[in-house]
Amino acid sequence: MNTPSKPFLLYEQSGSVVTLTMNSIETRNALTGGNAPDEFAEACARINADHSVRVVILTGAGPAFSSGGNLKHMQEMFDYSPAELREWYRTGVQRLALAVYGLEVPVIAAVNGPSIGAGCDLTTMCDIRIASENATFAESFVKVGLIPGDGGAWLLPRVVGRSKAAEMSFTGDTLTAMEALACGLVSKVVPADKLMDEARALAERIAANPGGALRMSKKLLREGEHARLDSLLEMSAGLQAIAHKTPYHVEAINAFNEKRKPDFSKF
Predict the structure, then answer these.
(1) Residues 156, 188: one domain?
(2) Which of 64, 197, 241, 267 has the most CB atoms within 10 Å of its CB?
(3) What residues does 20 pair with on adjacent strands?
């Protein structure tokens, strides 16, 4: 179990890019049985409040991205009552899911190794997934007689489609990195030693754009997952009206007409 002297989540900022590294190698970065939900909630709130942040990279220390639930800790839960279990999920891994999914800036999952159960679902809470050749993915809850209690039944079909999500959920089978690429779970597979370089390069291309426009674009993409077209158009019109009045829009248009590169560093 993690203790305050050893943070689960390492927070590092370089320019406008924050890298969050899950750092519990001994549990293969398990998301339960420790401080992960609290630390994710705190880090995500910090990022949302800090408008100098434009992109987040999420990765794991050691050979695994995340093993999901801590199976040793689950033995301690045998004596929990149903009411206690329900509250444990609501205040634990579900709080983590809402925090990560609710990040206002683009999030890149740099999947360095196995992402199992809740670890697999954690990748789907992110916007973009890049996988190392060593990465594997499994929606494996059924293998231990459980269901995706972290929102995976909502998240996974939106990434890979209903049929593939059902196949993954009902079999619990493990996908290789290339199989994940084929079904759209990840957008790129790279050599293990190039993973963070690829993630940082992508983050820098994203971070080169205005922070406000990135946050509003992500808001629209999130709303588009459940809103009707007419409702989304109304929201788009309102946010676009705001965007037209921002200094970074003025800078972009002026730079285009003056045939120079726009400078968004101060916005």
Answers:
(1) yes
(2) 64
(3) 11, 58
Q: In the 8-state DSSP scheme, what is residue 173?
A: P
- Helix (H) or strand (E) segment spanning residue 254: helix 247-257
pTM, two decimals, is 0.94
Long-range contacts (CB closer than 8 Å, 24 or more residues apart) made by 218-225: 218/104, 218/105, 218/106, 218/127, 219/104, 221/127, 222/101, 225/158
What pLDDT tens digit does each residue of the chain (267 aa) get? 444 468 999 999 999 999 999 999 999 999 999 999 999 999 999 999 999 999 999 999 999 999 999 988 888 889 999 999 999 999 999 999 999 999 999 999 999 999 999 999 999 999 999 999 999 999 999 999 999 999 999 999 999 999 999 999 999 999 999 999 999 999 999 999 999 999 999 999 999 999 999 999 999 999 999 999 999 999 999 999 999 999 999 999 999 999 999 988 877
Residues 149, 33: one domain? yes
> DSSP 3-state assignment of 220?
helix
How many Cβ atoms from other residues are within 10 Å of residue 206's Cβ?
18
**Residue where a domain terminates, one of 165, 192, 207:** 207
In angstroms, what CA-CA distances link 7 with 1, 34, 35, 48, 123? 11, 10, 8, 20, 20
Name the token pair of 168: 């993954």
> How far is CA 127 from its chain centroid?
6
- Specify the CATH number for the domain of residue 51: 3.90.226.10
User: In total, how many domains does the chain have?
Assistant: 2
Residue type, 174: T
Contacts of 105 (CB under 8 A, 6+ apart): 47, 48, 53, 54, 55, 56, 211, 214, 215, 218
